[in-house]
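Support request, please re-run this one:
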Amino acid sequence: MAISDRLTFDDVEIRIQEQTAELGKANQAFHTEIIECKSAKNELIKLKDKLEAEITCRYNRILEGINKIFSIALQAKTEEDMGYECLSVALKVTGSRVGFVSLIGDDGLLHDVAIKDIVWESCGMHNKTGQRRPPENFIVHGIYGHVVNSGKSFFTNNLPLHPYIIGLPHFYPPLQSFIGVSLSFGW
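Re-run finished. Output below.
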């Protein structure tokens, strides 16, 4: 081996300094990643705690609502009173702005028992004389029909994409969520 093929002490020193600098940069980058991961972990813990608190709050609201409905059921004098009170509780528990309680009559049509009309005016339809009225006395189909015919409660938070949705009249407010509960008389 010739002398020119061998590294000098200075060359070795320079290479050691370069590799030490590269390792220092990699170590700093690794340290930054560790800090970012710890920060992300802490954010996830905060989100988890917030979600658990929200679930607990919802659960408590539901239990309070159920207790209130049982209390109402014992005191209601008419189906309409019961319907309005139960609907009020359901709207409070769900945070909804519009809702109704209806009966399927012997004629097979939907008949209103109670309507909460925070935005219901925009759902009105014209009758034969041209007067606006809430939708009623119609054959149940689509998502409502699914709840009634299956006899099972149902909810979705993505109503526009749900397979049972058949569309709403153009003048209805846009709906994103739906909860339907099929009830039957116990007597």
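The chain is about 50% helix and 15% strand. The mean pLDDT is 79.
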